[in-house]
Design a protein that fits this description.
88% of the residues lie in helices and 0% in strands. The protein contains two helices and no strands. The radius of gyration is 63 Å and the shape is rod-shaped.
């Protein structure tokens, strides 16, 4: 043996290394490999569950958004109906107010006409009474000018003889 190499020792070390490697492979590498596979499967399953839940959440969100859109549309329609009803009520009240105003104006015109007629009748009555008084006084003073006597009576007894 030149270099002091013992082939038997080298072969035993190689065999020892092979046994150690095989033992460690079965004792450590396989369990670690199985653990890593289970862990990857577990995370894939969690990822799939998360995707499913996300899809469900998206469906719920879409459903809720559709409901909100329908509710907004219903609110808009109700608002339009309420505005139309308020406008119609305002128109009806305006029409009633105009009708009342026409009645009030017609009543006021009728009352004014009655007042006017009453005033005309009273003034005619007073004129007749004045004319009757004037005629009595004229008849009572013979010899004077009738026109002067009438003027005297209407002006409160003032005489126009000094004109």
């Amino acid at each position: 043996m030149p270099l002091n190499i013992d082939w038997q020792q080298i072969l035993l070390h190689w065999m020892n290394l092979a046994i150690l490697t095989g033992g460690l492979y079965f004792l450590l590498f396989e369990p670690v490999k199985q653990f890593m596979r289970k862990r990857a499967d577990h995370y894939q399953e969690l990822d799939k569950l998360a995707e499913d839940k996300l899809a469900q959440a998206e469906q719920l969100k879409a459903g809720c958004q559709a409901k909100l859109d329908r509710a907004d549309e219903e609110i808009h329609q109700e608002r339009v109906k309420a505005q139309q009803a308020a406008q119609q009520a305002a128109q009806e009240q305006l029409a009633q107010a105009e009708e009342q105003a026409r009645h009030i104006v017609a009543k006021a015109k009728a009352e004014a006409e009655q007042t006017k007629e009453r005033a005309i009748r009273e003034s005619q009555k007073e004129m007749r009474e004045l004319a009757a008084k004037a005629a009595k006084k004229l008849a009572a003073k013979p010899g004077e000018d009738f026109f002067d006597q009438f003027l005297d009576l209407t002006e409160g007894g003032k005489t126009h003889e000094g004109r």
